[in-house]
Design goal:
The chain is mainly alpha-helical. The chain is built from two helices and no strands.
């Protein structure tokens, strides 16, 4: 799947949304392996 943007505002909006998602993340990238091991143990 590809995104095609033809307006600067579309790129700004997507970037802002992505930044917001990253800042709201509960788990940081370094925590993900531990989190996945924990989930595997609960399944």
């Amino acid at each position: 799947m590809y995104f095609v943007f033809n307006a600067t505002e579309q790129i700004r909006t997507l970037s802002r949304h992505f930044d917001t998602l990253i800042r709201a993340a509960v788990y940081r990238p370094t925590d993900v392996p531990r989190f996945l091991r924990q989930l595997r143990g609960e399944v």
